[in-house]
Amino acid sequence: MLIDSDDWYxxxxxxxxxxxxxxxxxxxxxxxxxxxFEEDSSFxxxxxYMSGYIDELNNDNIKLWQLDKPFIxxxxxxxxxxxxxxxxxxxxxxxxxxxxxxxxxxxxxxxASKSISVIDKPLINYRIHCxxxxxxxxxxxxxxxxxxxxxxxxxxxxxxxxxYLRSYIPYCIRSILFGYKKINKCDTTxxxxxxxxxxxxxxxxxxxxxxxxxxxxxxYDAFLDIIENSFYKKxxxxxxxxxxxxxxWNKKGKVVIKFLFIKITF
Length: 266
Prior knowledge:
Low-confidence stretches: none
Structural class: alpha+beta
Number of helices: 9
Order of helices and strands: EHEEEHHEHHHHHHEEE
Oligomer: single chain
Distance between the termini: 68 Å
Number of strands: 8
CATH architecture of the domain at 1-131: Alpha-Beta Complex
């Protein structure tokens, strides 16, 4: 099992999980989690996380490629207990311990698995910090995106790629867009680098698959907007133009037009 240093298990978590994986001889067992918000000491259990397994909760031998509902909601490695021999036999490893490097381990486990089961109970508490994201952490979102692109390539080589990709593609689109939203207020160089790589990957997916079929699972309008608009076009429409030309009313009720460093009052 894997856990971050500032998170914690429920008191009966290890006993429940160990007993289940031993009884069922699963490759891994998935369980729920709670978010702990440090700012006000509140808890929240995400309901969507288990939504893909809702019809399989009493199944002790789930075959992931047979699931009808999209089951890939995240790439968390800390909401599973893994059979150690399964991990060793399939040589499942992390690329590194940087943020965003979980996909190789998590999705590698999904691809190699023959049997899993689920405990629909929050057994780990995930701490949400009050601190804002620093520029150094923002740079790690490039690893975040690359990890998801690498996982996509892993699924392409898998035996049940068609079935897995039905669940993975909408998750991947959502996850990469989430990363862009996180870096949206950082420096232009990083935004441009992330945007261009995201746009290229989205264009590839749009050409290869019917992405419209996932429109209820993703922000389809945003997806198309990214494909259709270069960073230069979006940056100048969304940022440069509003900062070059501003029209507003001053306290005296007069119209003020500011164009770069020139201000005209009527």
